[in-house]
Write a structure and sequence with these properties.
- By secondary structure, the protein is mostly beta strands.
- The protein has four domains: 1-65, no CATH class; 71-148, Immunoglobulin-like; 159-251, Immunoglobulin-like, CATH 2.60.40; 255-350, Carboxypeptidase-like, regulatory domain (Immunoglobulin-like), CATH 2.60.40.
- The chain contains no helices and 28 strands.
- It has strands at residues 21-23, 26-29, 43-46, 51-53, 71-72, 76-79, 82-88, 95-98, 107-112, 118-124, 131-138, 141-148, 159-162, 173-177, 181-184, 189-193, 201-206, 211-216, 223-228, 233-235, 244-249, 257-264, 270-275, 281-287, 293-298, 301-309, 331-339, 344-350.
C-alpha cells in the first residue's frame, strides 16, 4: 500500500500521509530495485505484529537473509557410474531414489561435494541401458529426472589428508578419498610420536563427506608419524591404497594465547563464536548456564566476538522467514580482541536486559 525508500546509508526514515488502518510493516534491502523480495539476493525484515495507524511510535526492524527454499537441478552423468545432483537450499532432507530396474547386485553411495551445492550418486555395476530414471524429494519438493548414460571413464582414487603440517591439540586428523570409501582396516594404520612410541587412536567415518576422522591424544612440541599400509582403504569400486605416510607436529604451549569471557544478563543457551575478518568461525563454544567461558590454545591474531541467542536450543543459528512470520534468532556483537602468544585476555560481555 505504502512505500518509502532511501538510496544512501540512512537507516531511519518515515512514511507520511497514511490512511488510518491496520498494516503489516516490513523492510526490504532490494538488490535490483523491483520492490519484490528475491530470496536469493535480498534481505528482509518485518515487525512481529500488525501496527495501527495513526501512531507516533518508532519501530525497529532487523534485516536478515532467509534460508533458500529447496530446489533441485537436472542431474547428469559426469564420470563412469557417477551422477551429479545440483541443488540449492538445505540438502539434509534430500532423498535420491532410483526408479529404474536394476540387477540384484546393484549398489550405490551418495557423497557431498566439498565446494559446491552438489551430491554425487555413485553406483555399480555399469548399467547397459541408454538412460535411468531418478526421483528427487525433499520437504515440499518432489520431481523425477531422466539421466542419459554414455561411455565415460571412472574417477581415479586419490587420498588426501589434513592438516598437512601443524596440528592443534584438539584437532582431528582427517583422511579423505575422491571415491567413496567402502572399508577401512584400522589394523593397517599406526601413529608414532617423536619417542617412537605407538599412540592409541579412534576413528569415525563421516559417510556423506567421505572422511575418516582420526582422533588421538597429543602433547606439546611433539611430532607424529602416521602410516597407512597397502590395502588399508578400499573404495566403492574396489580400488585400494598404496603405502601412505604423513607427518604432523604440535606447537609449544607458549605459541598460543587464551581468552576468558564472563557473560552478564545473558539468556541461555547461547553460542559464543570467535570469527576472523572474513566472518569465518574459527572457534566456538556452547553454553547452557552462567559460568565463565574459556577458549584455550588460540592462534595469535584478531578475533571478532559474536553471540547467538539459541532460543530453540538446537545449537545452530536459525534465520527468519517472512511468509511463516518467523523472526531470526538474536545475534549480539562485541568489540574485537587481539590474542597474543603466551598471553591471555579476560573480557566481560554485558547484554541489555
Amino acid at each position: 500500500k505504502y512505500i518509502t525508500n532511501t538510496l544512501d546509508s540512512v537507516s531511519t526514515f518515515s512514511i507520511e500521509n497514511i490512511k488510518a488502518g491496520t498494516y503489516m510493516l516490513y523492510a526490504l534491502k532490494d538488490g535490483n530495485g523491483d520492490n519484490k523480495f528475491q530470496q536469493k539476493t535480498d534481505k528482509i525484515g518485518f515487525y512481529k505484529e500488525f501496527i495501527t495507524i495513526p501512531t507516533d511510535t518508532s519501530y525497529n526492524l532487523k534485516l536478515f537473509s532467509e534460508d533458500l527454499d529447496f530446489k533441485a537441478f537436472r542431474p547428469s552423468l559426469i564420470a563412469g557410474e557417477k551422477v551429479v545432483f545440483g541443488y540449492e537450499g538445505d540438502y539434509k532432507n534430500m532423498n535420491i531414489t532410483l526408479l529404474s530396474e536394476v540387477p540384484e547386485d546393484f549398489d550405490y553411495h551418495i557423497t557431498k561435494d566439498v565446494k559446491t551445492d552438489s551430491l554425487y550418486y555413485w553406483y555399480k555395476p555399469k548399467l547397459e541401458v541408454d538412460s535411468i530414471l531418478f526421483k528427487v524429494s525433499n520437504v515440499e519438493f518432489e520431481k523425477e529426472y531422466t539421466v542419459k548414460l554414455r561411455q565415460l571413464k571412472r574417477d581415479s582414487l586419490t587420498i588426501k589428508a589434513s592438516p598437512t603440517s601443524s596440528i592443534g591439540y584438539q584437532e582431528d586428523f582427517i583422511i579423505n578419498g575422491s571415491i567413496p570409501f567402502k572399508t577401512f582396516d584400522t589394523s593397517k594404520i599406526s601413529i608414532m610420536d617423536k619417542d617412537s612410541t605407538f599412540i592409541e587412536f579412534s576413528s569415525l567415518f563421516d559417510s556423506i563427506n567421505n572422511n575418516y576422522i582420526i582422533n588421538f591424544k597429543k602433547s606439546a612440541e611433539s611430532t607424529y608419524k602416521i602410516r597407512v599400509l597397502p590395502e588399508g582403504f578400499t573404495d566403492f569400486f574396489g580400488n585400494v591404497n598404496d603405502t601412505l605416510n604423513y607427518n604432523v607436529r604440535t606447537k609449544k604451549e607458549s605459541d598460543f594465547g587464551y581468552a576468558r569471557f564472563t557473560l552478564v544478563n545473558a539468556k541461555y543457551p547461547i553460542i559464543l563464536q570467535l570469527t576472523n575478518e572474513k566472518d569465518e568461525v574459527k572457534f566456538e563454544q556452547y553454553a547452557t548456564k552462567a559460568e565463565a567461558i574459556d577458549f584455550l590454545n588460540l592462534d595469535p591474531g584478531k578475533y571478532f566476538i559474536r553471540v547467538i541467542h539459541d532460543a530453540n536450543g538446537n545449537k545452530i543459528f536459525d534465520t527468519g522467514n517472512y511468509l511463516k512470520k518467523i523472526q531470526p534468532e538474536k545475534v549480539s556483537f562485541f568489540k574485537e580482541i587481539e590474542i597474543r602468544a603466551d598471553w591471555g585476555v579476560s573480557d566481560i560481555l554485558e547484554f541489555k536486559e
